[in-house]
Fold:
Amino acid sequence: MTALLEITRLDKTFETSKGATQALRDIRLTVKEGEFLTVIGPSGCGKSTLLKIVAGLDTEYAGSVRLAGQPVSGPGIDKGFIFQEPRLFPWLTVEKNIAANLSLKNPAIRERVDELIQLVRLGGFAKSYPRELSGGMAQRVAIARALLRNPRVLLLDEPFGALDAFTRSHMQEVLLDIWQENKTTMIFVTHDIDEAIYLANRVVIMNAHPGSIKRIVPVDLPFPRKKANRSFQELRHLVLNEFEKVDELELVDSSGI
Ligand code: ADP
Ligand code: MG
Structure:
């Protein structure tokens, strides 16, 4: 695997009327082609800010962010983005939401849309409207829409955060299927430690104030993984332990010591 994404000395400061907030400090990260990276950290540690910079949605930063050797200078179809809410067009069917600005009359598009509908397990729902779908199904439409553009990287910002535990675990299976089938590089932000370990080749643990990388934990467990396995639970404790340290730091900060 070669390096697809290279981030060096990334700093991001927001200037607001109340002053400056340093959201990210000295982020250094390399992501390999085909890798599944998850990012976890306390609220406000800069996870969304980092993802938006990689997506090219925010280009005001210091440092270097390169995708496939090119500096990231704006959004584009090479970088798919999945938000917590699916953001579908309510007046379009599932297949038209996936195609969006591409024509289903084009046989190659038609064929790929049909394949993607199967891949995200929405067979039989091509002609349904978003209001007829559950939250998990709608999010699968959003993922299919991004994949149709063949992105170099898929960036997912707490994509399953609004879903119930059962749906969330089904979505994890679907996403792993997609990853194994398409080999798309994934950067996935989550609040859920089990989810972070279950999906990842590596888990990036972030700190807040300012947002920085605290530790990167490789997950060398074979797929399919079992959350109840001892080796999984050991990793869980290791990650949890890092969070307890983060919480302690926050306590110290808030007491003003
Ligand atoms: P996370 O996704 O980890 O919860 P964010 O990336 O949303 O964190 O935010 C990181 C920090 O940057 C927070 O302190 C947040 O208040 C600040 N921030 C994020 N977006 C903006 C913005 N548009 N303007 C000012 N501050 C922002
Ligand atoms: Mg966020």
Remarks:
- The CA atoms of residues 173 and 193 lie 16 Å apart.
- Residues 14, 16, 21, 23, 41, 43-49, 211 surround adenosine-5'-diphosphate (ligand 1) (CB under 6 Å).
- The beta strands are 3-16, 19-32, 36-40, 62-67, 70-71, 79-82, 153-157, 185-190, 202-207, 212-218.
